[in-house]
Write a structure and sequence with these properties.
heterodimer, A: 561 residues, mainly alpha, 16 helices, 2 strands, B: 58 residues, 3 helices, 0% strand
């Protein structure tokens, strides 16, 4: 029997019933875990704010573990699976492969997430997201993560199967659209990530159950980071695909060059996952050759990929805007962009914060020598809040404002809140990132319940500026949490109570004009992007300055005499 | 078939030849193979080999 589908009025895309239901289920669970993980995050920031110091020590480490798992893994991966189904079945206009397996994957992921959360909340698995051995969690903690990983792997293969169906049934011609290609890259990185996780977490489970006597700490750290860091590289590929998707759907923007953007994604396939070695830069036992190859020579090629996207995404927006007639001066296209549309504003803020804060800091801290200044300080969470929260989470929030009308077919409630939310959340997360990086530069350690070390025999006082920045970090976290709260209210409220959209409904925050380009292959005809070139120039100057400032700082830490 | 027709057929084959890079980028399973193999060799296997060759303290 042929499966039922509908034609989306906005994008002209075919949306199959089973795909729609799977996207809805994965996206809803994702948002619920975002809310839970976000609350844990706020409690951590308020604990590290010296004047507030909210949680007792045992609760702090429990919250830190739950926060890392729920937002770094559960929220993001559930949402990514929704994106994979959208990018394959919806964009290619074909039925989804093996919907029953897709539902089995969803069930496994949900059960895994719940099992791990319960293990953490029981209080005997406060081993943090990294769960470094010899810290030992309850076996159910590892069982939950393994179930979650198996479910995700199945979902990735449902995605690959859907690509095969689309090709066999000839629902597209030539190459897949760029958004689908980017999602394919995310799925590829996910397979390596999950395989690495299985290699190390299965023996760790057996160790926690007493069947294995010893797990080597360095071996654990090396293989685990193939899972831990690569899982964040799935995010990068996924959220960059979303940048392309949003600019296509909201502005009708076509890629400046399909070849160049795909080449940038290919660099991710080949090199991005090697960045996992960042985490081992000060570990003894592994040679500098391995460290420098993985974090410098190879990863710079992946960074080249990111910088290409950093040029092509705003570039295609500029080209689309100029085609609409916004040609005055260098930046009329940017001034006249749809800043009141939260999908666009969220995407653009995500792009800027990811590039300037997350990208620059990531490359600089990946240099073996400079890494010594900030390793294991709170600078590191400052960096990855810029990439994962400002970059990925904000991009996912932005695309949700499109998914609600297009997939859930509900109009957004509280459009004023929706318009303000990306700015508030972006401001809060930018503050979190900058102030944590600042405090880390002054030596404040990460994962530390009390940096005043009140009970220590040998107390240590950090400079006043460090305490000020931790306070500002707490205030920024409140802003970000407020932005997160507004997002949850708008999205959940819209799904439950939003006006149903049919052919006659006027959508308050409208998607698009030329949204159909999202499902097509093709370049912008005559792109002229002087404004983007100027912005890229500002980026390079910032990059170079920050890079050399850190070398100068390193020279002052260890003066050569 | 005349020489002219041969030439047309050859031109048509020429225009249909898909460049190597496009073949690579259009093949998700080849990309999957590369995306799993390269980090497995350079990150996992090389890293693990370095760890297992650390001399044991006596």
């Amino acid at each position: 029997m042929l499966e039922q589908y509908r034609i989306c009025q906005t994008t002209g895309l075919r949306v199959f019933q089973s795909t729609e239901n799977l996207i809805k289920a994965n996206a809803v669970v994702a948002v619920i875990f975002l809310a839970i993980g976000g609350l844990f995050g706020l409690s951590i920031a308020l604990t590290r704010w010296k004047a507030v110091h909210l949680l007792p020590a045992d609760w702090f480490y429990l919250a830190l573990t739950a926060h890392g798992l729920d937002v770094l893994v559960v929220w993001i991966v559930f949402f990514e699976i929704a994106v994979l189904y959208f990018a394959s079945s919806v964009i290619l206009g074909c039925r989804i492969a093996t919907p029953r397996w897709a539902w089995a994957a969803f069930a496994l992921m949900l059960i895994g997430a719940l099992v791990t959360n319960v293990a953490v909340l029981m209080g005997n698995s406060s081993v943090m997201f990294t769960s470094y051995v010899p810290l030992k969690a309850d076996p159910s903690f590892y069982v939950g993560i393994i179930l979650f990983a198996v479910g995700t792997l199945i979902a990735c293969f449902v995605f690959f199967g859907t690509l095969v169906i689309a090709k066999q049934e000839k629902t597209y011609e030539g190459s897949v659209p760029l958004v689908t290609f980017g999602a394919t890259v995310a799925a590829i990185i996910a397979v390596f990530t999950l395989a690495s996780g299985a290699i190390i977490l299965i023996p760790t489970l057996l160790w926690s159950m007493g069947y294995i006597s010893h797990i080597d700490t360095l071996m654990y750290r090396t293989v685990w980071w193939g899972f831990g860091h690569s899982s964040q590289q799935i995010n990068v590929a996924a959220h960059i695909s979303i940048w392309y998707l949003i600019s296509a759907v909201v502005l009708g923007a076509k890629p400046l060059s399909e070849k160049v953007s795909r080449f940038a994604f290919l660099l991710y396939v080949l090199f991005l996952q090697l960045a996992s070695a960042h985490h081992l830069l000060v570990d003894p036992g592994i040679s500098s050759t391995w460290k420098v190859f993985n974090t410098s020579y190879a990863i710079y090629l992946a960074v080249l990929g990111s910088m290409i996207h950093g040029l092509t995404v705003p570039g295609q927006i500029e080209a689309a805007q100029r085609k609409k007639g916004y040609n005055n001066g260098m930046f009329e296209w940017l001034r006249k962009a749809p800043w009141g549309n939260p999908a666009f504003s969220g995407m653009f803020i995500s792009l800027i914060l990811f590039g300037f804060l997350g990208g620059i800091s990531g490359v600089v801290m990946g240099v073996e020598q400079i890494n010594l200044i900030i390793h294991n300080t709170i600078y590191v969470p400052g960096h990855f809040h810029a990439t994962v929260v400002a970059g990925t989470t904000l991009a996912f929030m932005a695309v949700t404002y499109l998914l609600v009308p297009l997939i859930f077919r509900r109009a957004l409630i509280l459009p004023g809140w929706a318009k303000a939310q990306p700015y508030l959340f972006g401001l809060g997360v930018a503050g979190i990132s900058v102030f944590m990086m600042g405090a880390g530069t002054l030596g404040v350690p990460r994962r530390h319940w009390d940096i005043s070390q009140a009970d220590a025999i040998l107390p240590y006082d950090f400079p006043g500026a460090a305490n000020l920045m931790m306070g500002l970090n707490g205030m920024s976290a409140i802003l970000a949490a407020l932005g997160g709260f507004m997002f949850i209210v708008v999205v959940v409220g819209s799904i439950l109570f939003g006006k149903k959209i049919d052919a006659s409904t006027e959508v308050p925050i409208a998607p698009p004009e030329d949204a159909r380009v999202v499902g097509e292959y093709g370049n912008e005809d005559h792109p002229a992007i002087p404004g983007t070139i100027a912005l890229v120039g500002v980026f390079f100057v910032s990059f170079i300055l920050y890079y050399f400032v850190n070398w100068k700082y390193l020279a002052e830490v260890w003066p050569l005499r | 078939m005349s020489e002219e027709n041969h030439q047309e057929a050859a031109d048509s084959n020429e225009s249909e030849r898909i460049p190597f890079m496009q073949q690579l980028l259009d093949n998700p399973f080849l990309l999957l193979f590369l995306g799993v193999t390269i980090p497995t060799i350079f990150y996992i296997i090389w890293g693990v080999m370095e760890i297992v060759t650390i001399p044991i303290a006596k």
